[in-house]
Amino acid sequence: MPRPTSFERAILDPFYHELRTSLTLIQTCTDLLMNADVTDPGDLRNFLQIIRRGGTRIDRLVRDFILLAKSEQGMLREEHPSEPTSLLPPINLALLEVRAEAAERNIDLVADLPDTLPLVLANPDDLRLILGRLLNVALRFVEDDGDAIVVQTRANADSVVTIITVEGTPLLNEDLPHIFERFFVPQNLPLSREQHGLGLDLPVVTALVELHGGKVAVEQLANGNAFAFTIPRAEPAPA
Q: Domain total for the chain?
């Protein structure tokens, strides 16, 4: 069997590290539950929640890795058909999914959205995944209670832009060119929680946005960062 190239190791080693981290958490909690005298309902609930989060993380990691592998082989388009759809329902669903964490951390989650938007040409499930992953990244850059994450949209002649502005720690200049790399670890990321870096969230976002003919960008602000992506309109604006 041929040995992995340095490029393959650069891709696979972080994946294995993330996988081992989650498996170690699950195994440690399982051993404690089996061998320690844990009877307090609160402790039991905490251990089970850690096991559940670890399992969810492994499932997500594997799914993301497969999606990116298929993207590199040009195999996604058939599985992710586009259709005329509105961005507003996926935005609202993605906001709903992170609202509990935002409330727990005293983060203002602001949806500055119009009543209607032009339809875009995309897969609705992909839009929800794109928005969910960007909001997940945004939550990792928020450091202080009372900071805000603001979601806005803007209709252009040929596309609709979604902008997620994050109050918090600005990216360093030297990190900006690398922010969309797999498992990238920004030097001043304030919240690592159970994993280090940004995982595969931004590579997945990039793959799905580009699949539908859009673009992704990040901008460093004085007191935070702005993540934005475009999706082509289903029909161009009238001249």
A: 2
Contacts of 128 by beta carbon, 8 Å cutoff, 6+ apart: 90, 93, 94
Strand, coil or helix: 173: coil
Distance CA 55, CA 30 (A): 12
Q: Count other C-beta atoms under 10 Å from residue 8's C-beta.
A: 11
Distance between CA atoms of 162 and 215, rounded to whole angstroms?
A: 11
Report DSSP letters for 1-53, one per residue.
-PPPPHHHHHHHHHHHHHHHHHHHHHHHHHHHHHHS----HHHHHHHHHHHHH
pTM for the full predicted model: 0.82
Domain range spanning residue 43? 6-72
Question: What pLDDT digit, counting tens, does each position of 118-174 carry?
Answer: 999 999 999 999 999 999 999 888 876 778 999 999 999 999 999 999 998 888 899
Q: Rounded to an integer, what distance in angstroms lies between the CA atom of residue 113 and that of residue 131?
A: 14
CATH number at residue 228: 3.30.565.10
